[in-house]
Amino acid sequence: MILWQGLGSGGSPGFLRRPVCACGQAGGGKVSEVPASDVPSDPAAAGGQQGKQPGPIIAVDGPAGAGKSTLARRVAQALGFRYLDTGAMYRAVTWAALAKGILPQQATPDALRQVAQSIVVRVSPDSRHVWVDDTEVTGFIREPRVNQAVSWVARVPGVREQLVRQQREWAAGGNVVVDGRDIGTVVFPGAELKLFLTASPAERARRRWRELVQQGYQVELGELERQVEERDHLDSGRAVAPLRPAEDAVVVDSTGRSVNEVVAEVLRECERRGISSCTDSCTGSSGSC
Ligand code: DC
Predict the structure, then answer these.
(1) Tell me: the pLDDT tens digits for 128-163?
(2) How far is the centre of ligand 1, averaged over its atoms, from the C-alpha of 227 (Å)?
(3) CB within 8 Å of 246: residues ≥ 6 apart
(4) Domain range for 95
(5) Is residue 288 part of a domain?
(6) What spacing in Å lies between the alpha carbon of 49 and ligand 1's midpoint?
(7) 5 has which bridge partners?
């Protein structure tokens, strides 16, 4: 259900700025993962450098366990867009810190920034695979020790700066769905559609509990509720890029609703805004985006 849609000053003009589908450009899952180098500060400029208009960006923000990644992945699949899970990038830096023997909860911001600067984080076009340098870390970044430390890494401005640059580079060309905490507010303030997905803390803890149990971990639901609240507090209260909906975000509450229901609602919103699947809207000679 759409609870609220703000009409802040940064909204509609950003939506109107770009065409819905730019034919022949990189997109639709064809772009390979990218390292953190030569990153443009403005994704629209990146499209311009290639002589093509960038395609749309859908930003999905919200607290831990609201179902952002499931929603974002499903919407990306339905539209033929790439999907970037930015939380996986913060997790990869956290894994790298732990692998170097650095405990983020006790480390200085400078030590964590240096970790982020010294590694290359790569993410596949569907975010199913993540690497730190040449090591695939996909299987490690959801471990409880990473869960517990990642907020301490994500609050460091120098780490965020590195990762925001990489996120913009990854999304160059558009036709992407990107999820995180600051996507609509900081990373892509001109995104064509900004969603803020929420659910009650109890429901979010239950979802995390189910996920972890399926992965074979034994965890207490009460302990997870405490962790969800602690992470909400850290993510919303930090000085840099705190978790909050963009003024022009569409707020969607997923409490008690099925994934299909929420996905269908978001796809209707895409349609309403003229964001359609690349193959549906593409009229160029390449036949795909
Ligand atoms: O979505 P997630 O639980 O995988 O995110 C892991 C952590 O990274 C969480 O503490 C929030 C933080 N994060 C962030 O600060 N900014 C983002 N764009 C994505 C995640």
Answers:
(1) 999 999 999 999 999 989 988 998 999 999 999 999
(2) 14
(3) 6, 8, 10, 11, 59, 61, 184, 185, 189, 194, 196
(4) 15-33+54-273
(5) no
(6) 30
(7) 250
